[in-house]
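Contributing new complexes? Match this layout with methionine sulfoxide.
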Amino acid sequence: MAEVTLDLRGQPKAEAYAELEQHVEAVLEGIRDEVAAMATMSCLLHHAFGHLWTGFYRVVEPGRLLRVGPYQGTLGCLEIAFGKGVCGTAAAEGRTVVVEDVHAFPGHITCDGRSASEIVVPVFGPQRELIAVLDIDSEHKATFDEVDRRALEKLLGWFSRRA
Ligand code: SME
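Output block (do not edit by hand):
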């Protein structure tokens, strides 16, 4: 099982996330490397749900700058300042931001014009320091809700438990 990329579309979201979380934990067993984990999570989340863009922006200057990390999808912007766009807002505020309609979010950064909604979740390390954000974009409006927020925050707990 652990080597398969699952397609979980069509399953109730909460069940899909539960299965995905088990799968991620199994694939990453014995791995502590955070880039390997970001790449694995991007791949599995992207293909499980058929998202438009799924990936990480890493904190390269704390409080100031994010730089793109492992992702799946079309070309992402390379750098985002804290406070800019959805990613920079989530990073600056250290909280998950759910955007039902990206066109209604002031300062949204467009990397792929097909993006219609998104969720950005902060990633914390073992000392509760912000190490990255996970950004997921959808072609459809209002794709993400509380179920996604809770499940993704739980999944990303991997990075704080890793030490
Ligand atoms: N939409 C994001 C930028 C990153 S990309 O969409 C890959 C934002 O506003 O932060």
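Reviewers usually confirm one structural detail per submission. For this one: Residues 1 and 23 are 8 Å apart (CA to CA).
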